[in-house]
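Researcher: Quick sanity check before group meeting.
Model: Go ahead. Protein one:
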Amino acid sequence: MTLDLKAADYTLSGLRPFPVAVTTTHEGRSNGLMSLSAGSGGIVPEAPRVTISLTKYNLTHDLVLASGIFVMHLLAATPEPAMEASLKILMGLGGSSGRDGDKLAQFDTEPGVTGAPILRDALSYVEGRVVGTLDGEENTIFLADVVGAGKLRDGERLRIGPAWANLPKEWIEQYEANHVPQLESARRNRGLVD
């Protein structure tokens, strides 16, 4: 068999239906980003774990690596005002680099048990303290013990398809342009380009 890239994309993209907002802080600097690579990191219900995969290009990656803490948030699709707040989070954390300014200043946050910022307009969250990492060349996979959690409102979880369908065309174009250097960095880190 050969590597069918379309089949790989079909299979792997189906595993990432929920966009998550990841926030962290280290030495007075807070930041956040959007990710499609998060999940449960264990099976013991009384001692839950969470995983996130962060690309090394991102400031949030560096802050989580240094601090060992993060908050992973699910966003709300319903009711209608919650969807609007979720899209604001998605655009605010996913549309620019934290190296260019404070991305969290526009959001209502409060410190969690680790001090990492919790987005009060999210649907729910888990707060993690990192217990292990895996260097994936282009990214780092973080495994964390859940040390805090909360459900902030009732509603359905936002899926990436409906989220993307409701984002402004101009924002999507900006996101795609901003994503190019991240992809180039990932390719260089994996030795795929010079």
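Researcher: Fine. The other one?
Model: Protein two, sequence then structure:
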Amino acid sequence: MKKIIGILILVFASIVFIASAVSELTNSFFGLRNKTSVREKWWGSDKGAAGDLYGFTCLTQFCVSDTSILRKPDCSGTNKSYNIYALTDSYTEDIFKHPDYFCGANKCGYAFSNNGDVLPVHLDTTQRNIVMIECVERNIRTSLADSSHLKGFLTILKEKINETKAAEKAHSFHFHFNIKNLDGDYETNLWDYRFLRPLKQLKSKMTFNIFNRTYVDALVSPDGKYLLYQSTVDTSFIQSSYRPIEDKELKAIITSLNVAYEHYKRLGFDEVYLSIIPNPTTILYPNYHGLKYNQLIPRLENDPRLKLKVFGIYDVFRKSSEKDKLYQRSDTHWTRFGSMVWLNEFNRKMASHL
């Protein structure tokens, strides 16, 4: 009997090891367990539903969900006079799914920046055609420094089509066996199950209360109200809101953006906009335990070398009397309230040009 149990344990450990060493297997299994229809089952994923940072920490005080919806604005009486096509991320992807979110827009389309997909566009020269490059602040110093990335998300078609979303690339399965940095995949395959939530919450509570420690990727804010993504705080990461940026690096980012600007102007677009979504740390904690905000957004947006039009939300967020409503407390993203502030401000700005 002991031998059989030993063999079963060995087989189970081997399966977990192989699945964790092949990211494609872990990602496929996680994708299945993270579906809405599966998430509430005993074997469903315990991450994501209450925020990705809660998924890291399992601290019960942050087990909250933003259940509000993205509302379409009242655009009655507004003439539809422009088309807008965007390079988006998880902050604005939902906004660009339908032109009704944009007062004055006849058509909108988007390509998700993380996928490397390409948006096909047929330019209607009877209307203004706008390109929007949107980027969350933590990715400025990587994504916006790559002009090929900025130019590659859109292609011009000679014939008219109805598609307004980039077709997802077909991803063939590749068996990439990698035994380095397995901790995250091990945790997903062994512990990321709904039925284990009480046990994980108890462990996290004890670790935090006794040792004041959380999962490595998340930090509790100084006032205890928010979970913060560690890479937006720790200055050893390039995504940090407090990591200094020299003018040489800023110039390289501006040069990359200007190359993209010239590219889209040559393709026939009337305007090219830049929109930066501030890190939660930037707005909520500009001074963090002696660290000061590096001023990346205002330096970039106000630099006279930048050719793109800027749709800035930094000052609106910074001066808001409702900062506590802008970002989720257990997630790296903004709330629906925050996204509606962005959308309403954009519609207000565009209305002044119609």
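Researcher: One line on it for the slide.
Model: DSSP finds 13 helices and eleven strands in the chain.
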